[in-house]
Design a protein that fits this description.
S-adenosyl-L-methionine binds at residues 124-128, 147, 189. The chain is an alpha/beta fold. It has helices spanning 9-22, 29-38, 42-47, 55-69, 74-78, 99-112, 129-137, 150-162, 203-208, 222-230, 250-260, and strands at 80-83, 86-89, 119-123, 142-147, 167-171, 183-188, 235-244, 266-270, 276-281.
């Protein structure tokens, strides 16, 4: 790899894409790495295509490219992931937010549409993705977010401050920090992967993402089972619950949550890939 030597941003991007192709990685990542590191949009890049990239920028860019080739996720390299249109800081203390979780937020927002101020709870907030998206989309709501990890909460608080989202963050296990409270809408994306599924997972996920945010006991059902006993005491009579689930957990969780909420409608809904992904209680 040559040093910049008055290379333009366009040439740097082409070099990056070629390097990735040579190492059997998607060349599309070259643009994402450049844009996120520079804090640019695609429009910014197009307007400066012919401008020379600085030597420092080029060195950083190819350092990022090499890290990506080694298997490190883009989000941890540049420290950012976009969720529901909002840029979030992510570190190896937090799970990288997924598009499937955006679908969960979308369903919750549809349920609350037209309603006045609501009390909303996000259990196991991680980077703060769900709580922040809910608060930004419905500023009138009172949003609370919990997490067991002090490190994750620090990242979530930083994201909320950066995005001017007024959220109450509480440290503790699941619903423990809100023992005496009830909510209109509860959301959660808990760890739900079984240890048996390790062989199906991408090596970069296993190597870099926090295992405590991925894996759970009892075939990945542990936290759903624990919450099934306590959630009914925290959800208001006319409240709604949205939980992300594993693709093969729908049947068992449907049965469990119908018992937990006998007076409500419990459904399992699929994601855009056609897989069971959401447990919804209304």
């Amino acid at each position: 790899m040559d040093q910049s030597n008055e290379l333009s941003y366009q040439q740097a991007l082409q070099n990056g894409a070629l390097f990735l192709e040579q190492h059997e990685k998607s060349p599309l990542a070259a643009e994402r790495l450049l844009l996120d590191r520079l804090g640019w949009t695609k429009t910014d890049l197009l307007m400066r295509f012919a401008d020379p990239i600085t030597e420092q920028e080029y060195k950083q860019y190819f350092s990022d490219i090499k890290e990506y080739v080694s298997g490190k996720p883009i989000q941890y390299i540049v420290g950012v992931e976009w969720f529901y249109g909002y840029p979030l800081k992510v570190t190896e203390a937090t799970l990288i937010p997924r598009p499937e979780t955006e679908e969960l937020v979308q369903r919750a927002l549809q349920c609350l549409e037209g309603k006045g101020p609501q009390k909303v709870l996000d259990i196991g907030t991680g980077s703060g993705a769900i709580a922040i998206a809910m608060k930004k989309e419905r500023p009138q709501d009172e949003v609370t977010a919990t997490d067991l990890s002090e490190e994750a909460l620090a990242v979530a608080k930083e994201n909320a401050d950066q995005l001017d989202a007024d959220i109450r963050f509480l440290q503790g296990d699941l619903l423990e920090p809100v023992q005496l409270e009830t909510f209109d809408c509860i959301l959660s994306n808990p760890p739900y992967i079984s240890e048996d599924e390790i062989g199906l997972m991408d090596s970069s996920v296993l190597e870099y993402e926090p295992h405590s945010a991925l894996f759970a006991d009892h075939d990945g059902l542990d936290l759903y089972q624990k919450m099934a006993f306590t959630l009914p005491f925290h959800l208001k009579t006319d409240g709604c619950l949205f939980m992300e689930i594993g693709f093969n957990q729908g049947e068992k969780l449907l049965e469990l949550y119908k018992k937990a909420f006998p007076d409500k409608t419990v459904t399992i809904e699929k994601d855009l890939s056609g897989l069971d992904r959401m447990l919804i209680v209304k």
